[in-house]
Amino acid sequence: MTSTADAYDTTPEDLAGWLRSLDLAQTVGGIDIAGAGAADVVYPVTEEVIARAPMGDPETADAAIAAAATAFATWARTPWAERRAALQRFADALERDAVELATVVTAETGRPLRRALGEVFGGAIYVRTVAAVPPFEKTVPHPRSRIRMNHRPLGVVAAIAPWNGPVILAVVKIATALLAGNTIVLKPSEFSPLSALLFGRIGREAFPPGVCNIVTGGPEVGARLTSHPAVAKISFTGSTATGRRIGQTAAGNLARATLELGGNDPAIVLPDADLEQFVEVTTQMSLANAGAFCSAIKRAYVHEDVLDEVVDRFDARLRRLTWGDAFDRATDLTPVQNRPQYERVLGFVDDAVAAGGTLHGTGRHPMTRGYFVEPSVVTGLARDHRLVVEEQFGPILPLLPFRDLDDVVAEADSGPYGLGASVWSADEDRAVDIAESLQVGTVWVNQHGAFEAGIPMPMAKDSGLGIDYAEYGVAEHSQAVVINIA
């Protein structure tokens, strides 16, 4: 795939043949490593098997960690400027091969090609932003000593990335770890392994052998990576339940851990808000993308005076969305990425209907095949319904009326998660006051889900520990060192 025109002309049959021609393999020590087995890769739009991906095993994980440990001895001493240049080469290669990589992302996630291209180019921008982070060096004035502070790399980083952002959430981990002087072993989700295998190959152009290793596999491979005594740092993005187990394992080895976990982001919509903007942002960032975004709006508290208008606006906007093949330029909707999650989302829909909720949009399967769930908003649910209190990760959004602002702020803040939130109001000062009272990592005002590559993504409560992003992420992949000279 050398151009977007070629990619948009792809049929499922052509796609399967092209994926076979890539002959993708794991990357360990800078070379191809065959899998101990193989797993089907399903195109979520049609439910067809379009590829067989090599799958590693715990022994593959051991080999990758050994390769990373060997490479660390040299990479840790590589000057900062040379590590920066390597990341720039990686970004160049991502941009050069963006169409090919985006085609793979679309094949394994069902995300429309234009969205996949945005993810790849966004990943390249992020890598360049990290590459611009300066070394951590500081001299501290002191009357009795000369104090120098700097940071040193930790060692081997084990990283596990999820299926909902197979490129961007992987390169975030790679870039921050490698600039700091660590080496890395990254495992993608078994539901979306192909894109990681491809950029593992791309990364060989930028990094010395063993610096960036890619292994695939299921929970047993992840368990080996996160429990290995040679791993100094774990970077995980996924569920809170799995994150807790990884955190316990890391503590046993005194390994550091950054855990980006679940979220149940609320939006608080005041009566003076720009309702058209709220509906449009929510549709594009959350509902059209199958809700598969950690910081998607997952529950919306709407002032009762404007609730009916918000429902009507959603109904009209959602009707204009189109579903179809992800390589069709007209397609708006992303299917749910895999069958287990698809069935879970339909379970949320069934439970909402059984509890007396009203679906605006069918919330059902609009096509004869594929993992599509029609985006919908739901009214009439109790405040403690599971669609409200759990992270649904699907295109179904509960709308909850409120009148008293203090009460709704307390309600929005009462759950276990603390990833993000948004406040919508024409009164910016009032909105910022509300934002500052919410116990979450990021609060947007009159927008949601807008990320800048150089801005961290903090986490609060059960949404995780640490920061993976930008200079904060580089610092968390480093050991602070103080040199105190008499």
- Stated plainly, the CATH topology of the largest domain is called Aldehyde Dehydrogenase, Chain A, domain 1
Give the beta-strand count. Answer: 22
Task: Provide the number of structural domains.
Answer: 2
CATH architecture of the largest domain: 3-Layer(aba) Sandwich
Low-confidence stretches: none
Level of helix content?
Answer: 40-55%
Strand arrangement, major sheet: 14-15-16-13-12-18-19
In the CATH scheme, the class of the largest domain would be Alpha Beta
Helix count equals 17
GO molecular function, one term: oxidoreductase activity, acting on the aldehyde or oxo group of donors, NAD or NADP as acceptor
Protein name: Aldehyde dehydrogenase family protein
Domain Aldehyde dehydrogenase: 39-480
Keywords: Oxidoreductase
Would you write up a description of this structure?
The protein is of the alpha/beta class. The chain is built from 17 helices and 22 strands. The protein has a 7-stranded mixed beta sheet with strand order 14-15-16-13-12-18-19, sandwiched between helices. Helix 10 (240-253) links the parallel strand 10 (231-237) and strand 11. The chain is globular, with a radius of gyration of 23 Å. The N and C termini lie far apart (62 Å). The active site is at 260. Keywords: Oxidoreductase.
